[in-house]
Amino acid sequence: MSSTAPLSAVPASQPVPAELPPELAEIRAQAAAAGLPYAGGIAPRAAWELFSAGKALLVDVRSAEERKFVGHVPGTLHVAWATGTSLSRNPRFVRELESKIGGKEVPALLLCRSGKRSAAAAEAAAKAGLTCIFNVLEGFEGEIDASQQRGKTDGWRLRGLPWVQD
């Protein structure tokens, strides 16, 4: 496990945030002004701060296999955007997401491997009327570098944020 913040800072349960925190309201306004098709993107450290303070839910949208074998952020919810070896899109994703987070206006931060699937998932959620869904930029492992490896230039783990591996 790699961590700069103690795991004791991880919320024991996933309380539903009461309202959109000002930090996310600002990001949503900027995203709307830029014509982004979802509420916006947030840096990993800012996502951790909001999640650990109970101001937003953190939802891992990677496959169950990725969570198990690559690692995951403790205390997160899980709704797979795509499943199986071919990563076929989960046709129930939006319904499952809304059910797990508890409503259309609940602030939720979506995390995937690199930030691409979570952006697509955030866009689908926004099209279905979920108004406070944000993409965690960089993802859990980050982008592929010049050596075709992840986790060397950016991502949740590279930033030293809490994570565990089964």
UniProtKB/TrEMBL annotation:
The keyword Transferase applies. PROSITE patterns: RHODANESE_3 (PS50206). The keyword Transferase applies. GO terms for molecular function: transferase activity. Keywords: Transferase. PANTHER family: RHODANESE-LIKE DOMAIN-CONTAINING PROTEIN 15, CHLOROPLASTIC (PTHR45431:SF3). Residues 52-165 form the Rhodanese domain. This is Thiosulfate sulfurtransferase GlpE. InterPro entries: Rhodanese-like_dom, Rhodanese-like_dom_sf, Thiosulfate_ST/Rhodanese-like. Coiled coil: none annotated.
